[in-house]
Amino acid sequence: MLDSLKGLKIYSIANRKCPVCHEGNYFVGNNPYDLKNFDKDKGVCSQCNHKFEIESGFYYGAMYISYGLSVAIGVSIFMAEYVLFDALPLWVYIISIIVGIVMLMPVSFRVSRMIWMNMFSGYGKKEIFNK
Ligand SMILES: [Zn+2]
Question: What is the pLDDT of residues 25-43, one digit of tens each?
Fold first, then answer.
């Protein structure tokens, strides 16, 4: 997808590719709704041998990204309902926001991990982060 963006972090995030070489896949499967494997990563890039988990506990920081994404999803759902429908009861907003966040959680999980990983790695910068 969008090969002209190769070399930019958005390419790695959108395509779930290794942040260093942008070639190897990060996740085992491509389908985020394969709920048995949506969180399984390959550990090491198949193309450049970059170790994805830089240190133990590295991905705890991705929870902050995930929290921000969940808030953005919730606000988006609320705004869409507020603009499109007249005077919905409060419980409709609450239930639809919860359902929306839960339904998008596998995608949010993957995007937040890719954003977090790309904050600490860069295209062609393997030697700095893999000592
Ligand atoms: Zn790689």
Answer: 999 988 999 999 888 999 9
